[in-house]
Amino acid sequence: MCWHILGAGSLGSLWATRLARAGLPACLLLRDDTRLAAYTARGGLTLNENGERHTFAVAAQAVSAAQPIERLLVACKAYDAERAVAAIAHRLTDKADVLLLQNGLGSQEAVAAMLPQARCIFVSSTEGAYRDQDWSVVFAGQGLNWLGDATQSLAPSWLNELEQAGIAHQWTSSILERLWRKLALNCAINPLTVLHQCRNGALQAHAEEVTALCAELGSVLRCCGQAGAAEGLLEQVQQVITATAANYSSMYQDVAQGRRTEISYLLGHVCATARALDCPAPGLNRLRLRLIEELKARGLPSD
Ligand code: NAP
Question: How far does the signal peptide extend, from start to end residue (predicted)?
Fold first, then answer.
């Protein structure tokens, strides 16, 4: 069965090249005929891993093609996922599996609501990748892909294909807890690195602010039934700050490079959840407003 990959960006290319390397059928779904022509002229997708570059002739088609889709990997940004899936929804078969790779929360539920007939599998990835040029991806950080289905716990039979492709993964019956935990870690670190214009490690000088945010994040998580994701949050945030002291956060990098952030699916989602549940989150709301002001001041979208 073919892996259709919607979004030939960093993670989409990382998955597509590893599937192709293992001889598994994969097909990129590109925006339009212009992107398809550009890809065809380039002749393949390049994976740069440990300094070695290999190009794979991954098949590609425009989203407007007609071939039915049984397995879809959605690798767009959270703010593009719903619109991108809507454009190919009519091509999904009744038995389709849809893997959603988006960071944060909110976009997965929106896509799942649009596709009641499909099995939507949420993925939380700790792998790192970036594009060094068009149609070329650098595998920058080994990690793990947690996969799970919020509605049924049975693992799909195709997980062995990920094994075959060397895509590190783990099936979990608590994918929402994983996604909430990653979201909370992100909210405690990333916005502050943008506001203080610093590397992760410099947040050690803002320990009080980080501690207060973790306390509020913990209470929002407990309010929304994700107490497991709240356990030991501050300790893990401190560990991440220390272990990644020299790094710039993904949100810092997005802002520095003038790219749209996924704020609505990260800090925005936490604040919206707190509001819906009448859970007090004054510090998180202030942080969100400060971040929005900063994005606006830089001329970037604030949603
Ligand atoms: P990315 O490099 O920006 O790639 C997104 C791709 O989606 C782009 O190639 C974009 O096309 C394509 N796209 C958007 N709308 C489309 C549409 N309507 N039809 C077809 N293609 C469309 O993003 P990414 O870094 O791979 O991130 C994807 C998700 O994974 C995000 O939620 C991110 O937070 C998460 N994530 C990323 C990493 C990482 O290391 N990169 C790690 C963990 C999680 P264009 O190039 O034409 O704009």
Answer: none
Domain stops at, among 156, 172, 188: 172
Whether residue 206 is found in the same domain as residue 89: no
Helix, strand, coil share of the chain (percent; to 5): 50, 20, 30
- Domain enclosing residue 90, as ranges: 3-172
* pTM over the 0.85 mark: yes
Pocket residues for ligand 1 (CB within 6 Å)? 6-12, 31, 63, 75-78, 80, 83-84, 87, 101-103, 125, 127-129, 131, 262
Look at residue 218 in the predicted model and tell me its pLDDT: 98
Structure-token match 């090249």, residue found: 17
Residue 211 sits in a domain whose CATH number is: 1.10.1040.10
Residue whose Cα lies nearest atom 17 of ligand 1: it is 84
- pLDDT per residue over 264-283, tens digit each? 999 999 999 999 999 999 99
Q: In terms of domains, do 223 and 135 share one?
A: no
Q: Contact at 8 Å (CB) between 261 and 254? A: yes
**Which amino acid residue places its CA nearest to atom 43 of ligand 1?**
125
pLDDT tens across 19-37, in order? 999 999 999 999 999 999 9
Average pLDDT over residues 173-193: 98
Q: Which atom of ligand 1 is nearest to the CA of 102?
A: 32
Q: Which pLDDT value is given to residue 12?
A: 98
Q: What is the largest CA-CA distance in the chain?
A: 55
Any domain includes 71: yes
Q: What Rg, from alpha-carbon coordinates, does the chain have? A: 19
